[in-house]
């Protein structure tokens, strides 16, 4: 085939949507099966889930109650029956499942299920902050069947393309709107359907839409009439306009036309061979091949080359920004919230490479982790180390730094060292790489699959090579110890594990240059760090300091609600380990996720060359001329959005969306502009508004698209957002995926924009 079709003229045997036969299935379970399990309608694993069964839900050693669990007919929602009075059932979307864990792997099952039940246990782990669902099956065989079936279902849901996800969601709403289940839609049911998909229409317009589809004049819609309603609602006029501009031959876009589009609009180098490959990949389905291509990951806003590890990973460790977490064990606030090993699991799976462990003496000579002098709950140190070991390298192969906040007695420090040695084994770095005293950090590449300990050390590393005695005058302390524990004694076994990240007190940049070795690093409370980063004349000193040393920044103690500070000024100053409260969904965490979404989400992003140069003159505040100054003009057109979620779950609640475009970076680049709101339409709002931004230091800039539900009487409510580095933004017509407040993908929602970056003359 030589063309991408706009209107299909023939049928292929593997078509997924819009054939006459399939339109007869739109109101049946078979449609859901077809979308989720193409060619697998009779799949036994799917049938097992649709049938469901009894499982034991586990909350404590004494609380184990039978619950009936099954997949609903929409094939995207799990239904759970509860025995509670006034609470007959609960549901949760399959898309909310992060993973299904076999055995007693969750914190809850380790505590609350007997060891002999290991083979019958499994956990459903959710995205975000929702607690795990810990379950026990009646037999090992049944447990394996649940795990296998759920994992297959989650995999299929996660692998749906954007158009399949959208269609599945729309038809689920159609099924919900059909109140009497007669496979027909009355006028009132059509209005109910419109509200479900986030559109509020006045009665006259809704009646006009109904009559347009009611070809039979029967007073209800069925079969082809429902399909026609679907086509009217999902037609993308903006795509039609773009397609028509380049589809020079009647009804089709030739390879020549496609090359013209790719080069002129998308600013991509493209050949006829490239265009032919795209045509062969996206033309055969009876969906609009052009729209399918624009929904493809390779054609979206993030440069696909940057979604893999593409940077030089052979530079010294301190030449990278490192994704870092503060008080990783906490899942809520800093005063009375729960501590959990799940905090480590979730942070590591999001690409975090530096986690924190606050260590205190526990009973039975077992160290514990919790936020000292507060009411937060406690977890065993060894359980945290086990969870870290099991999950450290699932998302990224690059090294994990364990930042120890050590408040333990000498005796329990020895136990800490024993646990880390036995659990982490050879993956724990306990001596410098090579035979001689190092003069610089090893690279992330050299440290793949390794753990580094950050903490106090009794002596200089040089002493181990020169056989010198320990420095008895050492006053090295970590941040909380500065005021609380200066007299804390350190066990040699634990001290010897600190190689490349020795915690020391910061006095001044001059003192650090004069007295500190490369591996001696300081932690800065956010207030002091921001002052050093923002102070005129000091910011360049901070950058030069971070060319040679590592710096860690952590939130102020006043942030008891686990709120976060702005990480951008600290990155501008070259700070590598900017630790945030990962459990808190907020703008700052969105920006952090945007910073590290590139380079394969490996948790390491290479700093620009001028932030790795000892003699650099770069100053983000004064912004003198230099290689960092690359003035760009960013033109953004906000065109439309699709399938935005409801903010308020009430059926009558419809969002009034507006789009805000924000630039983060050096102070000269910080900017924000917003569209006007669109009333009562979260399904397919259109804006067609243009913005222009000046960006002077693109290497450090980030672009954030955020959609909010406009409210004239109170603060707008968050709908979804996406943040990415300026240099990873693709030009042309692009779909922007949207993430929820926890940083997880909103499956069918999206924003459609046009972007252009020009050099300022």
Automatic annotation (TrEMBL):
- Bias kind Basic residues: ranges: 9-18
Q: Which reaction does it catalyse?
A: a 1,2-diacyl-sn-glycero-3-phospho-(1D-myo-inositol-4,5-bisphosphate) + H2O = 1D-myo-inositol 1,4,5-trisphosphate + a 1,2-diacyl-sn-glycerol + H(+)
Q: Where in the cell is it found?
A: Cytoplasm; Membrane
Write out the GO cellular component annotations: cytoplasm; plasma membrane
Coarse class of the protein's main subcellular location: cytoplasm
Record keyword Calcium present: yes
Segments for region (Disordered):
1-23
Q: Which residues bind Ca(2+) 5?
A: 709-711
This protein's membrane topology, according to the annotation, is: Peripheral membrane protein
UniProt-annotated glycosylation sites, renumbered to this chain = 216
The PI-PLC Y-box domain is annotated at 494-612
Catalytic residues at 326, 371
Chain residues that bind substrate: 57-84, 454, 456, 523, 552
Heme among keywords: no
Q: Which InterPro entries match?
A: C2_dom, C2_domain_sf, EF-hand-dom_pair, EF_Hand_1_Ca_BS, EF_hand_dom, PH-like_dom_sf, PH_domain, PI-PLC_fam
- Outline the extent of the C2 domain: 615-740
Which residue ranges does the record assign to the PH domain? Answer: 48-155
Q: Tell me the ranges covered by the EF-hand domain, including all copies.
A: 165-200, 201-236
Q: Record's superkingdom?
A: Eukaryota
| Co-factor note (free text) | Binds 3 Ca(2+) ions per subunit. Two of the Ca(2+) ions are bound to the C2 domain.
Annotated Ca(2+) 4 binding lies at: 654, 656, 680
> Cross-referenced CDD domains, in alphabetical order?
C2_PLC_like, PH_PLC_delta, PI-PLCc_delta
Molecular function as annotated in GO: calcium ion binding; phosphatidylinositol-4,5-bisphosphate phospholipase C activity
Instruction: Write the protein's name.
Output: Phosphoinositide phospholipase C
- Native source species: Nothobranchius furzeri
The gene designation is PLCD1
């Amino acid at each position: 085939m030589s063309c991408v079709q706009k209107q299909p003229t023939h049928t292929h045997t593997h078509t997924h949507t819009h054939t006459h036969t399939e339109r007869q299935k739109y109101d049946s379970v078979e449609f859901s099966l077809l979308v989720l399990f193409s060619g697998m309608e009779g799949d036994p694993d799917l049938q097992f889930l649709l049938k469901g069964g009894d499982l034991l839900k586990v909350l404590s050693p004494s609380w184990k109650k039978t619950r009936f669990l099954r997949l609903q007919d929409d094939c995207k929602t799990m239904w759970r029956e509860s025995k509670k009075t006034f609470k007959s059932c609960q549901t949760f979307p399959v898309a909310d499942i992060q993973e299904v864990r076999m055995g007693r792997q969750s914190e809850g099952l380790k505590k609350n299920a007997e060891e002999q039940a290991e083979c019958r246990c499994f956990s459903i782990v959710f995205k975000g902050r929702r607690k795990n669902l810990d379950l026990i099956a009646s037999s090992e065989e049944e447990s394996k069947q649940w795990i296998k079936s759920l994992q297959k279902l989650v995999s299929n849901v996660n692998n749906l393309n954007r158009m399949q996800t959208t269609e599945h969601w729309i038809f689920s709403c159609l099924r919900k709107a059909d109140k009497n289940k007669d496979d027909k839609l009355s006028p009132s049911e059509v209005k109910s359907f419109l509200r479900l998909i986030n559109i509020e229409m006045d009665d006259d317009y809704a009646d006009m839409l109904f009559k347009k589809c009611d070809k039979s004049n029967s007073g209800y819609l069925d079969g082809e009439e429902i399909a026609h309603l679907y086509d009217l609602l999902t037609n993308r006029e903006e795509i039609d306009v773009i397609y028509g501009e380049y589809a020079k031959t009647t009804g089709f876009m030739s390879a020549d036309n496609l090359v013209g589009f790719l080069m002129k609009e998308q600013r991509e180098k493209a050949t006829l061979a490239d265009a032919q490959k795209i045509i062969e990949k996206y033309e055969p389905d009876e969906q609009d091949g052009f729209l399918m291509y624009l929904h493809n990951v390779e054609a979206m806003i993030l440069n696909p080359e940057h979604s893999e590890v593409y940077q030089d990973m052979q530079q010294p460790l301190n030449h990278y920004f490192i994704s870092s977490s503060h008080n990783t064990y906490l899942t809520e606030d800093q005063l009375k919230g729960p501590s959990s090993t799940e905090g480590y699991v979730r942070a590591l799976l999001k690409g975090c490479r530096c986690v924190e462990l606050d260590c205190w003496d526990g009973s039975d000579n077992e160290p514990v982790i919790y936020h000292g002098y507060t009411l937060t709950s406690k977890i065993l140190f060894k359980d945290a180390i086990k969870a870290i070991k099991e999950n450290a390298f699932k998302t990224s192969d690059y090294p994990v730094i364990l930042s120890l906040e050590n408040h333990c007695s000498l005796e329990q420090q020895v136990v800490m060292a024993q646990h880390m040695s036995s659990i982490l084994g050879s993956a724990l770095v306990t001596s410098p790489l090579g035979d001689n005293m190092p003069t610089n950090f090893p690279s992330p590449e050299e440290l793949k699959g390794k753990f580094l300990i950050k903490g106090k050390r009794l002596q200089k590393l040089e002493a181990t090579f020169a056989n010198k005695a320990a420095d008895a005058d050492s006053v090295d302390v970590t941040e909380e110890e500065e005021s609380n524990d200066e007299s804390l004694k350190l066990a040699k076994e634990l001290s010897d594990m600190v190689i490349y990240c020795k915690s020391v007190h910061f006095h001044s940049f001059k003192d650090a240059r004069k007295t500190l070795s490369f591996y001696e690093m300081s932690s800065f409370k956010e207030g002091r760090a921001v002052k050093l980063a923002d102070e005129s004349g000091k910011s360049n000193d901070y950058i030069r300091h971070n060319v040679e040393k590592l710096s860690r920044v952590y939130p102020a103690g006043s942030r008891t609600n686990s709120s976060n500070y702005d990480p951008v000024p600290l990155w501008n100053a070259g700070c590598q380990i900017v630790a945030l409260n990962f459990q808190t969904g907020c703008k700052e965490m969105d920006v952090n996720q945007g910073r590290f979404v590139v380079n394969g989400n490996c948790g390491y992003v290479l700093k620009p060359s001028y932030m790795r140069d000892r003699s650099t003159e770069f100053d983000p505040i004064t912004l003198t001329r230099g290689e960092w100054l690359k003035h760009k003009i960013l033109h953004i057109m906000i065109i439309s959005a699709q399938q935005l979620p409801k903010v308020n779950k009430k059926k009558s609640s419809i969002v009034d969306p507006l789009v805000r475009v924000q630039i983060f970076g050096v102070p000269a680049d910080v900017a924000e502009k917003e569209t006007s709101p669109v009333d009562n339409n979260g399904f397919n709002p259109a804006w067609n508004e243009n913005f222009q931004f000046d960006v002077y230091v693109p290497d450090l800039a980030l672009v954030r698209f955020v959609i909010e539900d406009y409210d004239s009487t109170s603060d707008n409510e968050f709908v979804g957002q996406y943040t990415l580095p300026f240099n990873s933004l693709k030009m042309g017509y692009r779909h922007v995926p949207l993430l929820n407040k926890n940083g997880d993908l909103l499956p069918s929602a999206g924003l459609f924009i046009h972007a252009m970056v020009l050099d300022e003359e």
